[in-house]
Amino acid sequence: MKDRSKGYQLFYFATCPYCIKVRIALWWMGIELPLKEIRYHRENRDELIAGGGKKQVPCLRIENEAGVQWLYESDDIIRYLKHKLA
Fold first, then answer.
1. Residue 66 CA to chain centroid, in angstroms?
2. What is the DSSP string of 3-23?
3. Range 34-41, long-range pairs (CB < 8 A, 24+ positions)
C-alpha cells in the first residue's frame, strides 16, 4: 500500500475529533500515510498554512501530475481515499 499512497500527507492534531475520524478510516481501509501533526510541530503548521492557505485540519495534501491540491473536510478526505487508494 505504501507505493499507492506516495504523494499523500495528512495534516492533523491528535485531539481533533474530525482528525480522529479520518485516522480511524485510514486504519480501517489499511492505508498508511505520512502524518504531520500541527499543534506541536510548528514547521508542519507553517507548511499547511503556506500551501493550503489556512490552519484547518484534517487536511490531505495530494501531490500528483496535476500539481499539489489541499483537501479539507473529514468526509471528503475519507471519500477521496476510499475511491483512490482502498
1. 18
2. TTTTTEEEEE-TT-HHHHHHH
3. 34/8, 34/9, 34/10, 35/9, 35/10, 36/9, 36/10, 36/11, 36/12, 37/12, 37/13, 38/11, 38/12, 38/13, 39/13, 39/14
Name the strand (E) or helix (H) holding 43: helix 42-52
pLDDT tens per residue across span 7-54: 999 999 999 999 999 999 999 999 999 999 999 999 999 999 999 999
Q: Which residues, including other chains, have CB under 8 Å from residue 66's CB and lie 6 or more apart?
A: none
Q: What span, in angstroms and rounded, lies between the C-alpha atoms of 25 and 35? A: 14
Q: Are 63 and 7 in contact (CB under 8 A)?
A: yes
Grid coordinates given for 44: 508542519
Is residue 86 very low, low, confident or very high in pLDDT (cuts 50, 70, 90)? confident
